[in-house]
Specification:
The complex is a heterodimer of chains A (361) and B (169).
Chain A lengths: L2 H5 L16 E10 L12 H16 L8 E4 L5 H9 L5 H4 L6 E4 L5 E5 L5 E8 L3 H16 L6 E2 L3 E2 L11 E8 L1 H5 L3 H10 L2 E4 L12 E6 L7 H47 L5 H16 L8 H10 L2 H6 L7 H17 L13
Antiparallel strand pairs in A: 1-5, 1-8, 2-3, 3-4, 4-5, 6-7, 8-10, 9-10
Helix pairs in contact in A: 8-9, 8-12, 9-10
Chain B lengths: L15 E7 L2 E7 L1 H6 L11 H7 L19 H7 L7 H4 L1 H11 L11 H25 L3 H24 L1
Antiparallel strand pairs in B: 1-2
Helix pairs in contact in B: 6-7
The chains are: A alpha+beta (361), B mainly alpha (169).
Keywords (chain B): DNA damage, SOS response
Protein name (chain B): Excinuclease ABC subunit B
GO molecular function (chain B): cadmium ion binding; cobalt ion binding; copper ion binding; zinc ion binding
Chain lengths: 361, 169
């Protein structure tokens, strides 16, 4: 399978059947691994990077989960393919801009992707739609064990898995959840949540990782520390933090409905109106409007089964995915026109809002 | 009047002061405006202090070129510049700068998680094989033929053990 054909098929996050979670859109776990006796990617010379890429690629393609997957060196990918892979969270922005000798291996259903020669020799990651930390861990743990049978990992009994950056030492594990927290944003409580989460040793970031904004009220919450705690303990701790954030978001929603449902319904209703009638829409604006509709679904303004459409559009309204449907290169304002057209078509047949829930409005 | 704080990453006066609490420990970082911007500090939800803490915790008094990693040629100065190490061996070479850093950075300083059992087992066998080959060479040189025969048998046996898992795959 090639990356081109892989990108033509729905991913875990765009597949309508896999979207069922109200607040956690996606769970992701990654493991950082390196080969013993080899320079880390940022320090290795080009021939060594090439040698590592081939060794890792061969070992990966022989494992059960990756057998029918796709693999490519970053240099073989077009700019559009790289962008689409970033938008599907299958590669990082860093990998897409990396030097010769980097690559990626992705499994058939796009739930497992392994970046080679990113910051570490291997960045193994498992993606799951919804809140599935334990499932993601069991999948990634099995793949890691299978790989370890074929590759000699750099490991120290005292410091654990040795990584290019000391912030990833130990388990090399970063577990994260992408959370949709519109009520906490509207209620102006996100800053408080970020502070509390930081105090618990977790990090809050925007949708696409470090340095990115949080358009669409989507935040990525992950563990900060990787050494001194077992993988299961890290996952358990993150899980309980996530549950507590879910509770806070639900409380904020209930409070907004109780005190200011007209304001909330107005926002949702306007978003619906814009999405049905827009002719020019930036990706940030699209994210924010889709976010309000998703909130509407959770508040039963729209039917539950339409959540999958929104989650698919969160990915498909991104610049790379919009560009793919055009025959020639588009300027950003041309993309905004095409995006508006795509969304107008989707929302022409979308369910009508029902604002008379629980006797309110 | 007290002199203004200097940026932790360069020598300009610091105008951005950050505090983050990780594991009940307070970490402070002072940055100048351009370093703050380069690090994305303008978006408080979008960046991690970990990288900054890591650089700030390096002792600037130690001459940067004093130690060099034998495996990859990496120096402490390189670490200060990149915030990343050159190779796994660097963790032994620079243990004196790694250890104090870990306390602030992680929940503990000792690994308690998963262990790559098969890779470690393979490494132990390979190390033992290397040792036996040296012993054999030495025994032959010094004409201790009985010892040499013993080493040779042990090497043959060990090689079979090492190769077995490959055949099973």
């Amino acid at each position: 399978m090639t990356i081109t054909s892989l990108l033509a098929t729905p991913s875990e996050l765009t597949d309508s059947s896999s979207s069922k979670s109200a607040i956690v859109l996606m769970t992701r776990i990654r493991l950082a691994r390196n080969l013993a006796g080899k320079s880390f990617p940022g320090w290795a010379r080009e021939p060594q990077r090439a040698e590592i890429l081939e060794a890792c690629r061969e070992a990966l393609m022989a494992t059960a989960p990756m057998k029918r997957g796709a693999s490519a060196a970053v240099s073989e990918l077009t700019d559009l393919e790289k962008q689409m892979l970033v938008e599907r969270h299958l590669i990082s922005r860093e990998l897409s801009g990396s030097a010769a000798g980097s690559g990626v291996v992705i499994n058939k259903d796009q739930t497992v992707s392994v970046m080679i020669n990113e910051e570490d020799h291997l960045r193994i990651q498992v993606l799951r739609a919804g809140f599935q930390l334990k499932k993601a861990w069991s999948v990634i743990n099995a793949l890691d064990s299978e790989l370890e049978d074929r590759l000699d990992y750099a490991f120290s009994p005292q410091l654990g898995y040795l990584t290019a950056c000391p912030t990833n030492l130990g388990t090399g594990l970063r577990a994260s959840a992408m959370m949709h927290l519109p009520a906490l944003v509207i209620a102006g409580q996100m800053e408080k949540v970020v502070r509390a989460v930081n105090q618990l040793g977790m990090v809050v970031r925007g949708l696409f990782g470090e340095g990115s904004d949080a358009s669409g009220s989507i935040f990525q919450i992950s563990n900060q520390t990787t050494l001194g705690e077992s993988e299961e303990a890290i996952i358990k701790r993150l899980g309980s933090v996530l549950e507590s954030i879910i509770e806070h978001e639900l409380n904020a929603r209930a409070k907004l409905m109780e005190t200011d449902s007209a304001k909330l319904f107005d926002k949702i209703g306007r978003a619906y109106g814009i999405l049905q009638n827009c002719h020019q829409l930036t990706s940030t604006e699209a994210m924010n409007l889709l976010s309000l509709l998703r909130l509407g679904i959770d508040l039963m303004v729209f039917p539950e089964d339409s959540r999958a459409i929104i989650d698919r559009l969160f990915i498909e309204a991104q610049p790379g995915h919009i560009q793919r449907t055009a025959k020639h290169d588009l300027e950003s304002n041309q993309r905004d026109i095409l995006r508006a057209e795509r969304l107008r078509t989707e929302f022409a047949t979308f369910a009508k809002p029902n604002f008379t829930i629980n006797g309110q409005n | 009047m007290a002199s203004p704080l200097k940026c932790d990453l360069c020598t300009n006066p610091a105008t951005v002061h950050l505090t983050q609490i990780v594991n009940n420990k307070v970490h402070k970082v002072d940055l100048c405006e351009s370093c703050a911007q380069a690090k994305g500090v303008t978006d408080p939800s979008g960046f991690s202090l970990a990288d900054l803490l890591l650089k700030a915790s390096l002792n600037p008094e130690i001459p940067a070129s004093a130690v060099r990693c034998e495996q990859c040629g990496f120096t402490q100065g390189d670490f200060k510049k990149h915030g990343r190490f050159g190779c796994p061996q660097c963790y032994s070479t620079f243990s004196s700068i790694v250890e104090p850093m870990l306390d602030n950075m992680h929940k503990g300083t000792a690994h308690t998680g998963k262990v790559p059992e098969k890779a470690l087992e393979r490494k132990t066998l390979h190390d033992r094989l290397g040792e036996l080959e040296l012993n054999l060479e030495d025994a032959v040189k010094t004409e201790r033929y009985e010892d040499a025969a013993r080493y040779r048998d042990e090497i043959t046996q060990l090689k079979q053990t090492v190769e077995q898992p490959k055949r099973a795959r």
